[in-house]
Write a structure and sequence with these properties.
Blueprint: H1 3-25, H2 27-37, H3 45-61, H4 63-73, H5 75-93, H6 99-109, H7 115-124, H8 132-140, H9 145-160, H10 172-191, H11 205-208, H12 215-245, H13 250-266, H14 268-278, H15 280-297, E1 303-313, E2 318-323, E3 327-332, E4 338-342, H16 354-362, E5 369-376, E6 378-380, E7 386-388, E8 394-395, E9 400-410, H17 414-442, H18 447-476, H19 481-508, H20 510-526
Antiparallel strand pairs: 1-9, 2-3, 2-8, 3-4, 5-9, 6-7
């Protein structure tokens, strides 16, 4: 078999293994939810959250050491070790009978998440530099393993428990996942060829970790914290967001949330191709810029704001000759001339009734709606008390007769919201591939270690962001506060990258940099 066919075979096997491992990594989200919902275990919300997050945390933290082992020994044996260890932990999970046994099992099979660091280093060795972006993008599409779990695991649990008649039937699910890992191990063992970076075996541990001192590695990690970590976080956060912010049924919320998560995983291959064709840095400019704008557009909350508006003042000392719901006749005390004050606008029903508010939110509105109207003011007595105006009342010049009201409503239209979230998911999917296109270019002999650390930072983003989103919601009372954080973080990454690019231009192409600055200054002086 020639090298090209071997490379594509390894890529296929890597992507298959990563898809299976990613499905295992996200299994607890479905399994723990099922066990709590059916009452099989009486775990507190904190315990439930810990069990869901444990595999994510384990798989993220272990990416660095697993990446180091891949650089040193090659991807095939490390991949096999990761999957066998995860399969054993899944077998143990099938016998779990309480919180701590579940916790230990989750620590064990969470190592499946570290498979990403193996696959990145293993795949990059088989492809030339100009095609690594495409190859790594195809490999990264294995993120779709989470969608496999979301679609398949609930149905398997329903079948294994016989629609609830056999509560203990859930124990078969971890065994099915373990069997999938073992079968993948057999395929990988029989078909894959091992490969490792040249001279990797002669490196000391310290020299292998030397790239971690480079600031560029941590900058790549910050990018991945956004495009992968925030992606993982929003995949979980969007369901309660739709339910509580838009008051939608759970099933509908799940479907709309999948519009964000599914395409983002699959589009990664396109991101790799774009990085090969246009360059990873140019792609990241578009990714971070679009992320900043998209998240900023989602900051504005669903709101109803009532504010003072334009009122009506008496033009002269007068007596009220007549008054009804929307019309007042005044007779000037000096001239006897009559004038009429007519209220403008109507008070919206949504201000007064819940039914009116629900009708308003059900309307298809994209932009904010501004409604203004006027209401009769109250007569202020000498003792400071207030009452409604009546026929015969004396009013003074410049006395307030009618108060203005302005109502601004913004429904943060759910369809527009979903489209923007879909766009952000697509952009982040492209960004995941672009980030990892950088690594073999700058650190060709340390892809495992550098890719492992970047993966650690990204995975920790998936662990930290939901906690941060929850705290911001508690502090502000606004569901849209999460978009504030993501917009600011995206803009910070964009500024950081741009400053680095400017510095590199000054250092490596000073003549070009001077020419560009001179041309800009000349155009500014000429007004062009």
């Amino acid at each position: 078999m020639n090298d090209a066919r071997t490379a594509w075979l390894v890529l296929f096997l890597n992507t298959l293994a990563f898809t299976v491992c990613f499905a295992v990594w996200t299994m607890n989200g479905v399994l723990v939810t099922h066990l709590v919902t059916t009452g099989a275990f009486d775990w507190t919300p904190l315990q439930t959250g810990v069990l869901m997050a444990t595999p994510v945390l384990t798989g993220s933290v272990l990416r660095l050491p697993v990446g180091y082992l891949t650089d040193r020994h090659g991807g095939k044996p490390v991949y096999l070790g990761v999957m066998i260890a995860s399969a054993l932990a899944l077998v143990g999970n099938s016998f779990a009978d309480g919180f701590w046994s579940f916790f230990l099992a989750a620590l064990g099979f969470g190592i499946a998440g570290a498979s990403f660091a193996v696959g990145i280093a293993y795949t990059s060795l088989w492809f030339p530099r100009e095609r690594q972006g495409t190859a790594l993008g195809i490999f990264g599409a294995g993120n779709a393993g989470s969608a496999v779990t979301l679609l398949v695991a609930p149905r398997l649990l329903t079948a294994f428990t016989d629609h609830g008649a056999d509560p203990e039937g859930w124990r078969k699910l971890p065994l099915v996942y373990a069997a999938g890992l073992v079968l993948t191990c057999v395929v990988l063992f029989l078909l894959a060829r091992n490969k490792r970076p040249e001279q990797a075996a002669n490196r000391t541990f310290a020299s292998s970790l030397a790239p971690l001192k480079v600031a560029r590695v941590w900058r790549f990690g910050a990018y991945y914290f956004l495009v992968f970590g925030a992606f993982v976080a929003l995949s979980q956060w969007l369901v309660p967001y739709y339910v509580k912010f838009y008051e939608m049924p759970l099933a509908t919320a799940g479907v709309l949330a999948s519009i964000f998560s599914l395409p983002s995983g699959l589009i990664r291959a396109l991101g790799g191709w774009l990085s090969d064709v246009f360059g990873a840095r140019r792609v990241m400019y578009w990714v971070l810029g679009t992320s900043t704008i998209g998240c900023a557009l989602l900051v504005f909350p669903r709101m109803s704001l009532l504010s003072p508006g334009e009122g009506v003042l008496a033009g002269a000392d007068s007596t009220i000759a007549s008054i009804d719901a929307g019309r007042m006749t005044l007779r000037a005390r000096t001239t006897g001339k009559e004038s009429v004050v007519v209220l403008s606008g109507e008070r919206p029903a949504s201000i007064d009734t819940l039914e009116g508010a629900q009708t308003e939110w059900a309307q298809m509105r994209v932009l904010p709606v501004v409604e203004s109207w006027q209401e009769w003011a109250e007569k202020v007595e000498a003792d400071g008390s207030r009452r409604a105006f009546a026929v015969g009342d004396q009013v003074r010049r410049r006395e307030l007769l009618a108060v203005g009201r302005t109502h601004i409503s913004f429904q943060a239209n759910v369809y527009v919201f979903t489209f923007l979230v879909f766009l952000i998911g697509i952009v982040w999917g492209v960004g995941k591939a672009a980030v990892y296109k950088h690594i073999p270019e700058y650190f060709p002999g340390h892809v495992g270690v550098v890719g492992g650390l970047v993966g650690v930072i990204g995975g920790l983003g998936g662990f930290v962001c939901p906690i941060l989103f929850g705290q911001m919601l508690s502090w502000t009372g606004l569901w849209t506060s999460c978009w504030v954080f993501l917009a600011v973080f995206s803009f910070g990454c964009l500024v950081w990258m741009h400053r680095i690019v400017q510095r590199m231009t000054r250092e490596h192409m000073p003549e070009l940099h001077t020419h560009i600055e001179s041309e800009v200054a000349t155009r500014a002086r000429s007004g062009s």
